[in-house]
Structures are given as structure tokens and as C-alpha cells.
Amino acid sequence: MSQPPKVHPKPGQVKVVRALYNYSAQRPDELTFKAGEVLYVFDQTTDKDWWKARCGTKTGVIPSNYVECQTESVDAPLHEAARRGNLSFLRECLHQGVSATGLDSVGNTALHWACRGGHIECVRELLAQSNPPVNAQNKMGDSPLHLAAAHSHLEVLSLLLQAGADSGLHNNDSQTAEQLGSAAVASLLRLSRSPRARPASYTPDDYVDESD
């Protein structure tokens, strides 16, 4: 199986806020929105009074005082959705243009979090994005495969391997995913490297737990 080209995730956060009041755009670059609508803020630093945001399919600047009092905001919303296994919120973030390759403070992508939690549908959704960061390594050197292996999420491992995950990557402790997992994980990863013809996907019948 040919592997997709590696990507280099870029840092970046998006804040999710809820509008407190209605606002009608006064200039072409402004965004019209209604009280209660969810806004995805991409830039709060260029102008502290006017933030760049997206609402629905439209992007523009918004007056920060129309949302700044909102106490319930989420930094890195895609990561939060992946961590919690919230598929609907994850899809909404992707629909709103939140980058699937953004990094959190320790270098995790959303895919890292989905794999760590074993949230299989979130993993599927993230892998379906263009050029997913399947081999991205966080600041500890762990890839999504390392995290799935460490938590024995076998179905997630199967999806990652099909997407081109490199089972030979070492983390900062010089450990591969195989070294972090159970006997069943190790067996599955060895099977994935077998020179014989590989199945389209891996099932529980394709490996044995050598601890039994």
C-alpha cells in the first residue's frame, strides 16, 4: 500500500463563541450575525476590537464586544471534539474550516486525541480529510499509532495502518507503537508488516493474543 505524503501540521487555534446580540454588517468586510449564533473566531490579534470569524458559510470581521462577554468559549475546538468523541461537533468544526492539522500546546493533532480515546467514528472522519496527518508526531514523539497502541484500540490501529501509518516510527523514548501495546497489538502490527498479501482490513481473526 502506498503511503500518503507526510504533512507538517501548523500551529493554530480557533475560538468558538456565541453571539450575544444581533449585528448587521456596516462594511463589505464585516459579518452579519444574529444573537445566539455560533461564531468561529480565527484572528483576535490583528485588531483587538474587530475579530476575523466565520459564521455558516460566510467569513468577515465582527465587533469583539458583541461576543467577548461570552464566558463559554473553546480553544482548539476540533481537538476538544476529538478528545470527547463528539462526532457532530467535530464535523461542524471541519465544515467551518477548522484545520485538521492544527496542533495543541503539546503538539497533538485532533487525530492524536481521537486515536487515544478510541473514538472510531471521529477517527474515520479525520482520516477522510485531505492528506490526514497520520504520521504526525507530538512533542513526546508519539504518533496517532503510538497512542492507539498504548490504549489497545485495535480497530483504530487497523484504520491507521490502512491509511499508511508508519509502525516503525520511534518516539522520544525510542519506542515504537508495538513496544507500547499489548500482545494483541504487537501481533496486529507484525501482521501489517508481513510480506504476504494483506487483507483489505484487519479483523480479530487476523491476529492472536499471545498472552492467552
Query: Mean pLDDT, as a whole number?
Result: 84
End-to-end Cα distance, whole Å, is 31 Å
Strand order of the largest sheet: 4-3-2-1-5
Q: Name the quaternary structure.
A: single chain
List the secondary-structure elements in sequence, H or E: EEEEEHHHHHHHH
Radius of gyration: 20 Å
Number of domains: 2
CATH architecture type of the largest domain: Alpha Horseshoe
Strand portion, in percent? 5-15%
Number-wise, the strands total 5
**Which sheet architecture does the biggest sheet show?**
5 strands, antiparallel
Low-pLDDT regions = 1-11, 202-212
Question: Which bin fits the share of residues in helices?
Answer: 25-40%
The CATH homologous superfamily of the largest domain: Ankyrin repeat-containing domain
Number of helices: 8
Structural class of the helices, strands and pairings?
A: alpha+beta
CATH class of the largest domain: Mainly Alpha
